[in-house]
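Final paragraph of the annual report: two paired records, presented back to back.
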Amino acid sequence: MPLPDLDSSVGHSFGLELDAVLIRQITEVSGLKMEQDVIELKQNSTDGKYAIKKLPGRPKAGEVTLTRGLTEDNSFERWIKDSRFGRMHSARRHGAIIVYDYEGVPIKRYKLINAWPKSLEISTLKAGDTSVLTEKLVITYENMEVD
């Protein structure tokens, strides 16, 4: 369902799709960005004035951090084992971060090209604490496309 003109959306929930496997319990996504180098072209104009022109350069690879509550699902651990043991042919995957509205309808997809897990961090384990245990997965990717 497309949004009306000039309307903003609230990200109600998020999901990570990797090779047709969907993980929907993502609670936070940070660091998601598209970036490219800037090339400065320095030249003198025909009338002798010094000018700097900025041109787009190569796209930069990026990193995104996903946070979810700790569950029995071990898909993050299995994925990071592939990269830790050098099995990059199975660790590099195409995937997408999906933003859902309050009705569970996907409203935006951020496709990650050649993504692989860089690190997995479990929140602090503290006896008697009542906060939710989380795991943070940092994914590095070579390129991102927006649908």
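The closing record of the year follows.
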Amino acid sequence: MDEQEFFRTVAERTGLSRQEAADLTWATLETLAHRLSPGEARDLTIELPRGLAEAVRRGTTDRIERFGHHDSVRRVAERTMLKEDEADRGVRTVLAVLRQAISEKEFNDLMSQLGTDFSRAAESAG
């Protein structure tokens, strides 16, 4: 799945414009990268299109942060100026589209680092 297809899929599933979906996707990937080890972030970037991989790289730090799904939604809402309910639907959708865009092994590795509340969020997006 290329970057434009990723954005188009997020836009279709959320009802956002393509630009809003792109901003949402970038903000979500950067935010989630704060939760990943540098090695896991690197593994994820290998499977993503260049632009999306850059979002992960920009969010990667040496210090893994601990926050849950709700806090990630709040952070994404602040970064995108979306309402929290739109950001929540968007983060869930980005996780679901990621499941389609990367290998099953990489998605499982990602979810193991993010935790169960993120796994539940991805599942609830369908």
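The chain has eight helices and no strands. This concludes the annual technical report; the extension proposal builds directly on these records.
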